[in-house]
Design brief:
Enzyme class: transferase
Oligomer: single chain
CATH topology of the largest domain: Rossmann fold
Structural class: alpha/beta
CATH architecture of the largest domain: 3-Layer(aba) Sandwich
Family: Belongs to the methyltransferase superfamily. RsmH family.
Radius of gyration: 21 Å
Strand content: 5-15%
CATH class of the largest domain: Alpha Beta
Shape: globular
Distance between the termini: 37 Å
EC number: 2.1.1.199
Number of strands: 7
Order of helices and strands: HEHHEHEHEHHHHHHHEHEHEH
Strand order of the largest sheet: 3-2-1-4-5-7-6
GO cellular component, one term: cytoplasm
GO molecular function: rRNA (cytosine-N4-)-methyltransferase activity
Number of helices: 15
Number of domains: 2
């Protein structure tokens, strides 16, 4: 939903934007057009309008993403862009590094990038069955999914698949995972887990959903602590979003959307600008079928005077 992001963030005339999920850099490059033009040198010497040059801070947990773009002549060499390796939970530290206390806009696009889905070393796509079942955004931190399965009990695995994937057949899947481990043939590859899901999840009337979809989503969320990071970040975002600044968050499943909705609703410092989540246009879903489940919610940071005056 690039046009919607540019519209909602651009309306605030932002000087500092954090793209918390940089990925392919699509939103960052579009948002460059809504930054104010840099003041002339005499204005900058006297602090300009705000004393800060226009800037977009791009955050990503994937070292491959930063290595790809943060090179001479690459997108990260644009003086209006600073790229940082790390979760968007570390946005305040990135702002501080850039000499800023607040952002005027914060963008979250919580879906997987095409590069991640195509990476054979990560196992994000269950069509690459020979790949290791890794599922980490940052392969240098934490443990891969196949080790996560080895360290957890049948009940813990079942609970995670049900809670994070909303998979009805989670207990069947967990049981088979444990049985394979007992037979000294533990789940190690994408194909190993796909085979289990095919056996455990009956084919329904809706054949569009692969039987492994919900289980892979659940393990990815568990391995990367995705929901915990999202919840903690949104709980603190009003501390480092400037009054009048906005958060625009695109979610792709109900668990993420619920966290975003509740975070905006439960903190009096936010004004909700999208009473119902915005959905992609028919044209966008035709051009990008993976966008069909996207939901965009936007909130604006209230002026401190209004928050302080609230009863």
């Amino acid at each position: 939903m690039p046009d919607e992001i540019v519209h909602w963030i651009g309306e605030t005339h932002p000087r500092t934007i954090v793209d918390g999920t940089y990925g392919g850099g699509g939103h960052t490059h579009l948002l460059l057009d809504v930054l104010p033009k840099a003041e002339c040198s005499s204005q900058q010497e006297h602090g300009g309008v705000s004393g800060l040059s226009p800037l977009i801070i791009g955050m990503d947990r994937d070292p491959a993403v930063i290595a790809r773009d943060d090179v001479a002549g690459g997108p990260g060499s644009d003086p209006r862009i600073e790229l940082f390796l790390g979760s968007y939970e570390k946005s305040p530290a990135a702002l501080e590094h850039c000499g800023r206390s607040h952002a005027d806009g914060f963008v979250l696009d919580l879906g997987l990038s095409s590069d991640q889905l195509a990476d054979r070393a990560r196992g994000f796509s269950f069509t690459l069955e020979e790949a290791e079942l890794d599922l980490r955004f940052d392969p240098e931190s934490d443990i891969p999914a196949y080790e996560w399965l080895a360290y957890h009990s049948e009940r813990q695995i079942a609970d995670a698949i049900y809670q994070f994937g909303e998979e009805r057949y989670s207990r069947r899947i967990a049981k088979m995972i444990i049985l394979r481990a007992k037979d000294r043939s533990p789940v190690r590859t994408v194909g190993d887990l796909v085979e289990i899901c095919r056996r455990c999840v009956p084919r329904g009337k809706n054949h569009d959903i692969h039987p492994a979809t919900r289980t892979f989503q659940a393990l990815r969320i568990a391995v990367n602590d995705e929901l915990g990071i999202l919840q903690r970040t949104l709980m603190s975002a009003a501390d480092w979003i400037a009054p009048g600044g906005r958060v625009a968050a695109i979610s792709f499943h109900s668990l993420e959307d619920r966290i975003v909705k509740n975070a905006f609703r439960d903190d009096e410092r936010w004004t909700i600008l999208t009473k119902k989540p915005l959905r992609p246009t028919e044209q966008e879903t035709r051009d990008n079928p993976r966008s069909r489940s996207a939901k965009l919610r936007v909130a604006e940071r209230k002026p401190d005077s209004i928050v302080n005056a609230a009863p």
